[in-house]
Specification:
Elements (H helix, E strand, L loop, with lengths): L1 H22 L9 E8 L5 E8 L3 H13 L1 H12 L6 E6 L2 H25 L1
Parallel strand pairs: 2-3
Antiparallel strand pairs: 1-2
Helix pairs in contact: 1-3
Length: 122
């Protein structure tokens, strides 16, 4: 039962955090960020927020630092919007699944191009 609740809370937090980051955070270090997922512990004390950030490695690190600095503001706003008794602590992590997927797609494209070239010579 608590697993279902933590899943619902995670989805709601994902939606609210996306809006807060896009509309409320004014820090110029925050680049183009997409909240890809939120995992909440069963006791709702900790939320791991997975982010996809456009840009190079330094821009990604700067965006994460800016969000960590704004985590108090984000927690208080989440508490107001979702009405938690105790708002979960936010831990920001990079979601590399999108980069990994695009890398696999690129490699598969290279393999297909290589196969097309070999078939012509045979």
């Amino acid at each position: 039962m608590s697993k279902i609740r933590s899943g619902r809370v995670g989805e709601q937090m994902k939606k609210e955090l996306s809006q807060l980051i896009q509309l409320e955070i004014k820090d110029p270090r925050v680049g183009f960020i997409t909240v890809t997922g939120v995992e909440v512990t069963n006791d709702l004390s900790l939320a791991r927020v997975y982010l996809s950030v456009m840009g190079d490695e330094e821009q990604k690190q700067q965006s994460i630092k800016a969000l960590e600095k704004a985590s108090g503001f984000l927690r208080s706003e989440l508490g107001k919007r979702i009405r938690f008794r105790h708002t979960p602590e936010l831990v920001f992590k990079m979601d590399v699944s999108i980069e990994y997927g695009s890398r696999i797609e690129r490699l598969l494209g290279e393999i297909r191009e290589g196969d097309d070239g070999n078939e012509r010579h045979e």
